[in-house]
Design brief:
Number of helices: 3
Structural class: alpha+beta
Low-confidence stretches: 174-204
Helix content: 10-25%
Mean pLDDT: 79
Radius of gyration: 24 Å
Largest sheet: 4 strands, antiparallel
Strand content: 25-35%
Distance between the termini: 51 Å
Length: about 220
């Protein structure tokens, strides 16, 4: 009433690496909110976990902003780098892994173990929308490859093929038609192996940088 702010909750147990206020979950007739009486909830990753025995930054503690008590603790064996959440899931970002938990029960929903080891400053960058999750993949999943961007050995993407066509034009516009039609995995005429190697690091390393995978968090299965 006086216009002054009042402190509702505070965490003073070591440095905080990540903290997120979890939105109210989305649930239907077959799903109920196990923490309805405790919400809103605050997810915190700090240097000293609730158990006190886990390594630094290896657990997520969920606190109730209504009562001030801790209602859930999720333990990991490796450090946590970030937390993301929407009305469906809570996503815990590890160095080369992603773990997703149901927002109503906080049971494990799915996990990803094929993230690209980024040099930083963000060790494992992801983007979470209302349903889709995007992350850096360490290899190209050929059956889901889009028509542009990454390409592997001797296989050019649509974008790379058009760029190569522009570089190797010598006989007028008729060559554009020849090159663009050769999108079946064979090298277009006038394109050398060196040109393809520019767009691919798979020869030098089993991990391929520059690939983004987008998954539907509602349809993905556990462990996929």
């Amino acid at each position: 009433i006086s216009g002054e702010a009042q402190e509702l909750f505070s965490v003073r147990h070591g440095p905080i690496r990540a903290a997120r206020i979890l939105p109210a979950p989305q649930f239907g007739a077959q799903k109920c909110d196990n923490f309805a009486e405790k919400r809103p909830l605050l997810g915190v990753c700090k240097s000293i976990g609730s158990s006190g025995t886990s390594p630094p930054y290896c657990c997520v503690d969920l606190y109730s902003l209504r009562t001030g008590e801790m209602v859930k603790s999720i333990q990991f064996k490796t450090p946590i780098y970030d937390l993301h959440c929407n009305k469906r899931i809570l996503v815990v970002v590890l160095q080369e892994k992603i773990a997703a938990f149901d927002s109503c029960t906080f049971t494990k929903k799915f996990f990803v173990t094929s993230c690209y080891p980024c040099p930083g400053p963000n060790m494992n960058p992801i983007a979470l929308g209302s349903r889709w999750l995007a992350y850096a993949e360490n290899k190209l999943i050929r059956c889901h490859q889009s028509r542009g961007g990454a390409c592997g050995d001797n296989i050019q993407s649509y974008t790379a093929t058009v760029i190569s066509a522009a570089k190797t034009l010598k006989s007028g516009l008729t060559m554009v038609g020849k090159v663009v039609t050769q999108l079946t995995g064979t090298l277009p005429s006038g394109v050398t192996e060196d040109d393809v190697a520019i767009h691919s690091n798979s020869r030098r390393s089993p991990l391929v940088p520059g690939i983004i995978t987008v998954i539907d968090t509602e349809t993905v299965g556990e462990g996929q």
